[in-house]
Design a protein that fits this description.
- InterPro entries: FAS1-like_DH_region (IPR039569), HadA-like (IPR016709), HotDog_dom_sf (IPR029069).
- This is Acyl dehydratase.
- It comes from Thermoflavimicrobium dichotomicum.
- Pfam families: FAS1_DH_region.
- By secondary structure, the chain is mainly β.
- It has a domain of about 100 residues: Hotdog Thioesterase (Thiol Ester Dehydrase, Chain A, Roll), CATH 3.10.129.
- Helix content is about 15%, strand content about 35%.
- It is built from 3 helices and 5 strands.
- It has a 5-stranded antiparallel sheet.
- The longest helix has 11 residues.
């Protein structure tokens, strides 16, 4: 896909997808990343903290379904994850229901040792049932077509 074709999708957002945050999923994720923090697994401990309940690790939002940007189709093979950034407005709590979406925020090209590379800048967002933004994640994906 050419830079010009990608540019037509800049600013286009997927329909929000409902994601339910389960404490068991948080615990499994914490186990998978090797983080023993009791905030991610022990309800009694979590009650004694400023959060008052189990929270998710910072990168847990990568497990959510963000939907698809309508019409934007590209091969997933050969994509390179270039960079990831998370901005949280509050923790993700066990029991949260979050509506997550993604959009292509920017696209640009650079010339590298192996030729031309297209950089896709995605922005994922999670909004709670009250309509408040809980987090925004930004990622750069390198597409070599």
């Amino acid at each position: 896909m050419s830079l010009q074709r990608f540019q037509a999708f800049v600013g286009v957002e997927s329909a929000p997808v409902k994601n339910e945050v389960e404490k068991g999923a948080i615990r499994k994720f914490a186990d998978a990343i090797g983080d023993p923090n009791p905030l991610y697994r022990d309800e009694e401990y979590a009650k004694t903290t400023r959060y008052g309940r189990i929270i998710a690790p910072p990168t847990f939002s990568r497990t959510f379904d963000y939907g698809e940007i309508p019409g934007l189709e590209l091969k997933r093979e050969g994509l390179i994850h270039g960079e990831q950034q998370f901005e949280y407005f509050r923790p993700i709590f066990a029991g949260d229901v979050l509506y997550c979406s993604t959009k292509l925020a920017d696209v640009y090209e650079k010339e590298g040792k192996l030729g031309r590379m297209t950089f896709l800048v995605y922005e994922q967002k999670g909004v709670d049932e009250a309509g408040e933004t809980v987090f925004i994640a930004r990622s750069n994906v390198i597409y070599r077509g």
